[in-house]
Amino acid sequence: MKLIMLGAPGAGKGTQAKRLAAKYSIPHISTGDIFRANIKNETELGKKAKSFMDQGLLVPDELVLELVADRLSQEDAMKGFVLDGFPRTIPQAESLTETLEKINSGINFAIDVDVPDKNIVRRMSGRRACVNCGETYHLTNLKPKQDGICDTCGSKLVLRSDDEPETVLKRLKVYHDQTQPLIDYYKGRDTLHSVDGTKDIKDIFSEIVEILGE
Ligand code: AP5
Ligand code: MG
């Protein structure tokens, strides 16, 4: 199953993608997570990406396209994947379509997790992410077992540097300008399905599973 998650920053793409990857035994590929791992490891790519991410801007397509094509060519992605945070621009979507066409394949489902802007800023200010493994939590909606500590690896939980309210507003604007047009792109390819992202995490998951099939 080849799946992409669409939706505004903070809509819950990562939360659902992780659960879907586990259910369908496919890799969860998040470009945001890949960039954050590169920033943590102080790679050249990480240094370049950080300056854009901290401003709430998209990393330029040329830094993203090769990275994703390379990741999708790895063995574990052959039978399927859930892409989270990619594509984010029309050129990225076109590039993905071309990459998959080369192996006679294509996206089966594009899931749009729909959350109005007014809910987003509140949600993001409560998100906490693990400094080590990137696992995400929420102060009220998805609490760790122990305050401020990651359930998975025991490291500290922090507010992501791009989750400050001002940066979130910028990311939302970038989303509406550059990423929302992808909804029509995938509608036109008959793969788009929208889910109401304001519901409970579990209910949204069930709704997506109903769309994808058991
Ligand atoms: P990325 O990491 O992809 O960030 P994003 O798209 O802005 O989305 P988020 O990860 O912030 O939100 P999410 O939808 O995953 O929500 P989550 O599940 O965490 O990208 C970061 C940056 O990297 C970009 O700004 C850009 O600079 C760069 N980048 C990445 N990919 C790129 C690309 N392809 N091209 C160019 N640049 C790129 O949920 C949010 C919070 O809400 C959590 O605390 C969660 O617990 C909680 N929550 C989730 N679901 C619910 C629910 N149903 N009810 C209540 N709370 C919920
Ligand atoms: Mg995410």
Structure description:
With 214 residues, this protein is an alpha/beta fold. The chain has a domain at 2-115 and 178-212: P-loop containing nucleotide triphosphate hydrolases (Rossmann fold, 3-Layer(aba) Sandwich). Helices cover 47% and strands 15% of the residues. The protein is built from nine helices and eight strands. The strands form two sheets. A five-stranded parallel sheet has the order 2-3-1-4-8, with helices on both faces. It has a three-stranded antiparallel sheet with strand order 6-5-7. A hairpin with a 5-residue loop joins strand 5 and strand 6. Helix 2 (31-40) packs across helix 3 and helix 6 (117-125) crosses helix 7. 34% of the residues are buried. It binds BIS(adenosine)-5'-pentaphosphate (AP5) and magnesium ion. Magnesium ion (MG) is lined by residues 13-14, 30, 32, 84-85.
